[in-house]
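Is this the right way to post structure tokens for a design question? Let me know if I should format differently. Anyway, here goes:
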């Protein structure tokens, strides 16, 4: 058992009440025991992401998706969400669908503006910051010697384009992306084991597909922290990792950009046409969710306009595999819209003017007094939270 040390992290969150499309996306009545008590934060009154009731048997969807089903462009919601969807407990109240979440970003490298919103982790940390709970994987096992980690995927889970999400997507990422030195100069840290053999050299675990819904990570030596890595950014998907040590990737889409599946001369022609010097650079761009609207995702929103422009936008993933306790397919919010702001002073002024719905990234603690002073005029509220940062 590892011992965990904790440090305090002060975070300022600015939430604009003027952003009615987000705040009006909830019912006016709190739900049962989940309603926030006086002086309680959402995290304090909702103790866990672990469902406290049985899974719903009826499912509902956003109006924009219902219209596509009616038009024959999408299958019914029950066929899209997986046979065993993740049930996310209510934090404050059951929501209603619709709206645009307005945020800001600072440039093409600012992918972290959404990577913590996309939730493309294999496992997840509960609200206490230390308990690991199911997420993409519905369950997992660890061998007693810490060498074998087995993850069980959700049956019927799909990528945002409707293609099945299976263990083959893990093997593809391992064999064709992570371990290819042309794409990754360094091999994936999450698979690395340090072994002493007349000095230190790296040894690596391997990834195996047991069956379409079972993936196994096998290590030459114990690596008990793999579940902790799987619950955070140490092992996450295309949104934050792209092509760099990614644990899974959409094989059905990305394989067309790799020489194992397409002749290399053809790939280099494709790269040149797209303005890249080699197929490697083309592949790396195609594998980044913020830069490639065509890239399938398992996150709640998919890219519509890339992060390389003035406006970075995403829309709901029609195949997202999570629901609330009432069977409403998540997310509630239809669209994320982020405007380029390269000067943090300008970002601060826009937040104070109520032009940002909710944002914590780039909101500076040093500006907290100014934010508080302008809150009433800007019609927003400031949340000053104390959060735990885990250090192993």
């Amino acid at each position: 058992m590892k011992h965990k040390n904790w440090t305090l992290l002060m975070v300022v969150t600015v939430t604009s009440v003027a952003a009615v499309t987000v705040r009006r996306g909830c019912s006016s009545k709190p739900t049962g025991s989940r309603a926030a008590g006086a002086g309680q934060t959402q995290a304090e009154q909702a103790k866990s992401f672990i469902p406290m009731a049985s899974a719903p048997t009826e499912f509902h969807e956003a109006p924009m998706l219902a219209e596509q089903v009616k038009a024959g462009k999408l299958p019914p919601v029950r066929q899209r969400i997986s046979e065993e969807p993740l049930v996310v407990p209510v934090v404050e109240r059951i929501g209603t669908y619709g709206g645009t979440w307005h945020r800001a970003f600072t440039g093409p490298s600012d992918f972290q503006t959404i990577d913590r919103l996309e939730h493309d982790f294999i496992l997840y940390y509960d609200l206490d910051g230390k308990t690991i709970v199911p997420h993409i994987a519905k369950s997992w096992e660890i061998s007693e010697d810490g060498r074998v980690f087995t993850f069980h995927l959700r049956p019927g889970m799909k990528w945002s384009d409707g293609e099945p999400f299976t263990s083959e997507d893990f093997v593809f990422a391992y064999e064709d992306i992570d371990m290819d030195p042309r794409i990754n100069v360094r091999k994936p840290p999450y698979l690395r084991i340090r072994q002493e053999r007349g000095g230190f050299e790296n040894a690596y675990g391997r990834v195996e597909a047991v069956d379409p819904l079972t993936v196994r990570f096998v290590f030459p030596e114990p690596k008990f922290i793999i579940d902790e890595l799987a619950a955070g950014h140490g092992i996450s998907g295309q949104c934050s990792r792209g092509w760099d040590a990614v644990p899974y990737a959409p094989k059905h889409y990305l394989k067309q950009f790799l020489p194992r599946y397409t002749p290399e001369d053809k790939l280099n022609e494709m790269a040149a046409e797209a303005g890249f010097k080699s197929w490697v650079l083309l592949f790396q761009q195609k594998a980044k969710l913020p830069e490639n609207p065509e890239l399938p995702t398992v996150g709640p929103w998919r890219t519509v306009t890339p992060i390389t422009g003035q406006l970075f936008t995403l829309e709901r993933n029609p195949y997202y595999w999570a629901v609330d306790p009432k069977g409403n397919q998540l997310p509630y919010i239809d669209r994320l819209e982020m405007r380029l702001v390269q000067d943090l002073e300008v970002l601060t002024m826009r937040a104070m003017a109520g032009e940002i719905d909710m944002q914590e990234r780039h909101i500076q603690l040093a500006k907290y007094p100014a934010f508080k002073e302008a809150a009433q005029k800007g019609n927003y509220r400031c949340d000053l939270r104390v959060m735990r940062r885990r250090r192993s």
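Format looks fine. Someone answered above. Worth noting: The first strand starts at residue 5 and ends at 16. Residues 14 and 382 are 5 Å apart (CA to CA).
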